[in-house]
Design a protein that fits this description.
single chain, Inosine-uridine Nucleoside N-ribohydrolase, Chain A, 13 helices, binds beta-D-ribofuranose, binds calcium ion
Length: 317
């Protein structure tokens, strides 16, 4: 089997946890390392949460590194109202006994990419601060990346604000650097993010599994459903990971995209030019700041859901 060599950059995060669990367990993914960034919660909590998820996946050897403590400009804006006080559902799981890698997030990215025999897919599921710093610190190594598949942005409305999706809004300058880097980018944004979900009944069934990964995933989903009072809840960030190994489940389109870094109400918006070509020619998007980005616009919800359920619970039927 041809494996996809992957680095995840996360702000774990309930839905980041779903993604880490999946990437660590799927046989077609070689998860080289996980880097952590300030986002849903502070970076030390993100590290602690990520280690717990890898423990639950039985992936105790995957290096985890600490990254940026705040956005390039401005202050941190956490999402604990969604992810809980500990950023991962307040499950009360004891801390992992593992220690983190001594290298910083950008150093770990550099070393993993340089030493990989296969081109590496970088999958950021969080504000793009670490990735922007990596691109600026190690541009020659960045050229060796196969591509970036990121969770972030939207071709229409936002969630953090009316215009902007959380990961882009948290650090728009970093996002602009990443989008304009020249590395091929796939954007898995709010157009599809909410669609693959897991129900209360499915979460309860996972909790009854004999596998620790399934019990962990089920408990996380169950706690989230209880707290938010909605079922199903989205698998969120996980979808971006799935696009790397099952592109046939996803429909994409190419758009010119600009990240709004102004200080106005559209700060953090990903402006996607969806107009007909003759209108684009009349009044082009700012070509200097725009990037050609592959955007996920549709997906086979049931296939994507089942892929996750069957990966984290081998006995799922
Ligand atoms: C994104 O923001 C975070 O809260 C989620 O983990 C996801 O990466 C959705 O806007
Ligand atoms: Ca995230």
């Amino acid at each position: 089997m041809n494996k996809t060599s992957m680095i995840l950059d996360v702000d774990t995060g309930v839905d980041d946890a779903f993604a880490v669990l999946f990437a660590a367990m799927h046989p077609a993914i070689s998860l080289l390392g996980v880097t952590c960034v300030d986002g849903n919660t502070n970076v030390d909590q993100v590290v602690a949460n990520t280690l717990k998820v890898l423990d639950a996946a039985g992936a105790v050897d995957i290096p985890v590194a600490r990254g940026a403590v705040r956005p390039l400009l401005g202050e941190s804006k956490y999402a604990e109202y969604v992810h809980g006080a500990d950023g991962m559902g307040d499950l009360g799981i004891p801390p992992s006994k593992r220690v983190i890698d001594k290298r910083s997030a950008v150093e770990l990215m550099r070393d993993l990419i340089e030493s990989s025999s296969e081109p590496v897919t970088l999958v950021p599921l969080a504000p793009l601060t670490n990735v922007a710093l990596f691109l600026r610190a190690f541009p020659e190594t960045a050229k060796k990346l196969h591509r970036i598949i990121l969770m972030g942005g939207s071709t229409s409305a936002g969630n953090a604000t009316a215009a902007a999706e959380f990961n882009i809004w948290h650090d728009p300058e970093a996002a602009a650097i990443v989008f304009q880097s020249g590395v091929p980018i796939t954007m898995y944004g709010l157009d599809v993010f909410m669609r693959p979900g897991v129900t209360r009944e499915e979460a309860e069934s996972l909790k009854r599994s004999t596998e620790p990964s399934a019990q962990f995933g089920g408990s996380l989903i169950h706690a989230f459903i209880e707290r938010l009072g909605v079922s199903p809840i989205t698998l969120g960030d996980y979808g971006a990971v799935a696009t790397a190994i099952h592109p046939e489940f996803f429909t994409t389109e190419m758009f010119d995209v600009v990240v709004d870094t102004s200080s106005g109400p559209a700060r953090g918006q990903t402006i996607c030019d969806r107009r007909d070509s003759f209108l684009k020619e009349l009044e082009p998007l700012d070509l200097e700041d725009s990037a050609k980005v592959r955007v996920v616009m549709d997906l086979d919800v049931e296939a994507v859901r089942q892929l996750w359920l069957r990966t984290i619970d081998k006995g799922w039927s």
